[in-house]
Write a sequence for this structure.
């Protein structure tokens, strides 16, 4: 079996969250979805499980963080072009997400940030490794 990544997120409104992630380009896998949680697919090896707080709490060993006011993690997704970064952000903003800061341009990588309806933070980026600096500065 191939190695896979499953990111589990607690959400307050399951349908609105599913609509948001669909707008970003995720698809739903109904096989691993029910009325309390949805499996959203980014690629053949990357999945986001969005779950109502009650279901998420069944797996948690600590209180669920208020990600509207506290950062619990940064999740990053690479795409094939800066145009795709911009398209994903445009769609996510239309679906209710917020962009907490302006695009960052590191020369070899352009990155935009979007927060979902519950404040989970996603970094969408395009990287051109051929532009990566060969000499590191201190």
């Amino acid at each position: 079996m191939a190695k896979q990544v499953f990111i589990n997120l607690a959400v307050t409104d399951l349908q609105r969250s599913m609509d948001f992630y669909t707008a970003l380009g995720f698809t739903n896998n109904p096989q691993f979805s029910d009325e309390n949680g949805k499996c959203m697919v980014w690629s053949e090896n990357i999945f986001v499980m969005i779950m109502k707080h009650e279901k998420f709490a069944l797996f948690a060993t600590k209180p669920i963080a208020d990600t509207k006011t506290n950062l619990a993690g940064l999740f990053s997704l690479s795409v094939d072009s800066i145009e795709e970064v911009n398209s994903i952000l445009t769609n996510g903003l239309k679906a209710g997400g917020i962009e907490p800061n302006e695009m960052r341009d590191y020369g070899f990588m352009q990155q935009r940030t979007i927060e979902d309806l519950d404040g989970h933070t996603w970094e969408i980026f395009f990287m051109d490794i051929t532009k990566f600096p060969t000499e590191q500065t201190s």
Observations:
- The helical segments are 14-24, 53-57, 82-94.
